[in-house]
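User: I'm putting together a teaching handout on how sequence relates to shape, and I'd like one worked example. Could you take Probable membrane transporter protein from Desulforamulus reducens, show the sequence you're using, and then write out its predicted structure as tokens right after it?

Assistant: Happy to. First the sequence, then the structure tokens directly below it.
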Amino acid sequence: MEHIFFSGSFIFLFIGMLGGILYPVLGNAGIYMIVPLLMLLTGLPADMAVPIGLAHFAALIIPAAVGHWQTGNLDYKLLLLIMIGFIPGLFLAERIQLNLYVFIPYLILLVGAIIYKIRPFALLPKPNNHFRKITLRVINQLPGKTFLTFSGIKVSFIVPIIVGGLLSFTGKLFGPIAALLLCPILIICLDIPVMVAVATSTVCNFIGMLSFAMWNDFLMIPLNLKILLWLFLGSSITVLVLSSVIKKKLYPVPVAALLVLITSFTLWTLMLGQPGHQVLIQQFSFPSNLLGWFGGVQG
């Protein structure tokens, strides 16, 4: 480990823009790539890259979470049960330390996303799938049934709590890629209606990712907040540009423009409150020292 001064923030802005470009190319898989990009391009260790990636992902899905909440497809009771499982999952994850292994699920996701773009394949099993029927049968036999009025089904309260624990455990260790788990589990294992599953999982992922980031004292470190804002500024500018020029808009243009304005103002305010502040971090020297001044790296 060595001390490296970042004289500028070009690299973080670039990574955010790259994440925004990957979004329409790879679908949702693109916005999960911030964690490996941070680790590869700046050498940040996993315990710093993961909470930054979590907060970045939470910020990006704010419009989607608000939209699903407004449409009224959110199952509040299911959401509450999942959130109850967050805390034990976080405590369990605290006992495990990962670094390079964080790359593995992102590498699998990247390969899968590329294959899907070339030759699409079924992402979820069909309703009459044999293994799905077995899974539903086993879950239906569990005790502690509670009726989810909004979803219109009975389910053991143990299951969504376990799902919440699994989400927080994987999120704490691997970052935003954990968000991929929730919606398929709700549809396949709990037989939640698709629209309700999508809405509930989106809002739950927003709350969860932000909570996991704050669990790491993320907002208590000005450096982390500054890196996050540069990343999000790059992503939101890219999303604004793409939403303005492509037919399939990522965000409504006014929403994307508002995100850029809010992020810019917040970043300006933060930097104004720390005049002359140079970003100092401890990180691995390779490969970030190859980026030169453009990456803001000064030995």
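A couple of points you could highlight for students: Residues 1-8, 275-299 have pLDDT under 50 and may be disordered. Residues 222-245 form the longest helix (24 residues).
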